[in-house]
Amino acid sequence: MFFLGSGGGLNLLNVNPGLVVWTLVTFLVVVFILKKFAWDLILKAIDDRTAGIEGEISKASTLRAEAEKVLKDYQDKVNHSKDEALGIINEAKSDASVIKNKMVDDANDEIRKMREQSLREIELAKTKAVHEMQIKIAELSVQIAGEILEKQLKKEDYSAFIDKELSKLERI
Q1: pLDDT band at 9 (very low <50, low <70, confident <90, very high)
Q2: Highest-confidence range of 38-47, 87-96, 128-137, by mean pLDDT?
Q3: What angle do the packed helices 155-171 and 39-150 form, to 10 degrees?
């Protein structure tokens, strides 16, 4: 309540000497406790962390030097491999032209045979599908005719029946 001014509001500009003394005493006690018990631990943790970071930096420098050496070796090997590859490519080009001509001829023969076989298979499948469709249509026609003959249909029933049977045909 000592913070409240005469108007009932908070008055932070009024200084209470007793509160200042106790705040200062509390602060000094906390600093003393930290100094006595935690200060050495905090400094040790900071020193350990510093030593760890320095060790990691040293390790990174060593690894970088090794990586640069490996990269140089790799680039030398790549250059040597490029030279070998060019020789192999030139030899392969001459062999490839002979093989290419033979493969093209063989592929053309195979394509012709496969096309003829595919045309025969398509014609067989088409004939089979038409035959199966004719059988299915005949079965459905007989079924529809049988159902028409079984029922004495009114005009509305007849329309609904025809729609139902047409939807069956569409599903086929």
Answers
A1: low
A2: 38-47
A3: 130
> Exposed e or buried b for every residue in 86-97, given b needs 16+ CB within 10 A?
eeeeeeeeeeee
Closest CA to 143 of 155, 161, 170: 161
Cα–Cα distance for residue pair 115/123, rounded to 1 Å: 12
Q: Is 80 exceeded by the pLDDT of residue 142?
A: no
Query: What SS3 state is found at 163?
Result: helix
Distance CA 99, CA 121 (A): 32
Q: How far apart are CA 59 and CA 53, in angstroms?
A: 10
Alpha-carbon Rg of the chain, whole angstroms?
Answer: 48
Instruction: Give, in degrees to the nearest 5, the angle at Cα 50 between 44 and 51.
Output: 90
In three-state secondary structure terms, 4 is: strand
Among candidate residues 142, 144, 141, 143, the one with its CA nearest the CA of residue 158: 144
Site of tokens 């014609």 = 123
Position 116 scores a pLDDT of 92
